[in-house]
TrEMBL record:
Residues 122-171 form the AB hydrolase-1 domain. Residues 1-36 are annotated as: Disordered. Residues 9-23 have a biased composition (Basic residues). It comes from Rotaria sordida. InterPro entries: AB_hydrolase_1 (IPR000073), AB_hydrolase_fold (IPR029058). This is AB hydrolase-1 domain-containing protein.
Amino acid sequence: MASPVRSTTTKKKFTRHASKSPKRNQSPSRIQPDISFESEEFAYSDPMDSSRSLMQNVVFKRHDRGSLSPQATQLFNSQTTFEDEAERSWLLENIRSTTISIKVDQTVVTINGNYAFRENQPCVLFLHGFGSTRNWANWIKLAYPLSQRNQYSVIFVDLPGFGQSSGRNLDQTSWKRYGPEILIAILSSFHLRHSASVVAQCGGAATTVRTINRYPQWFRDRGLVFSNSVIGDFGESKVGGFENNLTKFNIHIVVYWIPDQDHAKHCVAYKRWNKLRLAGFRNLQLIDLDPATQTLKQFYPVIHVVNISRCSSKNEAYVYKLSDEFIQQVINILDRKS
């Protein structure tokens, strides 16, 4: 796989050292990672012109495991969730586990990920929401149908503070400012030469919105799927900038909304999406789902997977139980057939 053209400037060795202050009792999740970026690569803001859009303040280093992680192996062997032997075998044979170290300015994070990737295939990044049961496994039931029906590459990650990625437990305030750069570094680590789609829930969708406002080239001509994209700060330089980016870069988003106590219809995001719907805005579609009949709040029985998540749910894997109808809707959106 070809790598983007590197900068010709002399590279420095960036090392993140632990504080020398008196030791405190900290959980491993609260300790900053000690990472040396000896052979770092720069993220890039435009996949169509990677050599001329290198981001000097965002470096990464991807390290693929020699084998599937114990968590992914244990998850994929669940015959309750993966009843189809063909699906189970495909996951075990084709998904790869990886760790992506990212440095944005002086902030360092390590991202846990799992993927099935082929060069020149369209690519989908899956992002979870915020909560103790949220991690890369939530959307995994989309991996096999997307690969088989439409030959998509798929990337599943734990955002900082979730799953096995670094960061304070379930905390997004420490990395929210750099969320767009972290997403771009994740995508850049796969050396993509084309834009990407995103399927995201709640906080993952909010991070994607802010990324579109900073780096819309990464989603040019793509279809994206959001579920309950609660967001107060759109990260716009001026009001209406988000809609302008969707139009200018031909980005289409479908937002599914299932009201509950955390995702009420009087929130800022829903009001904005609904206003766009009423105005007939063509690049964003809001779809209200009935909580009594929809499937996005349904999970398979909890799977015991050691250390897959955080806090009280650290040994519990939650996988969305998606209907065949919804899976086909997602495929149609990604294919821009909706």
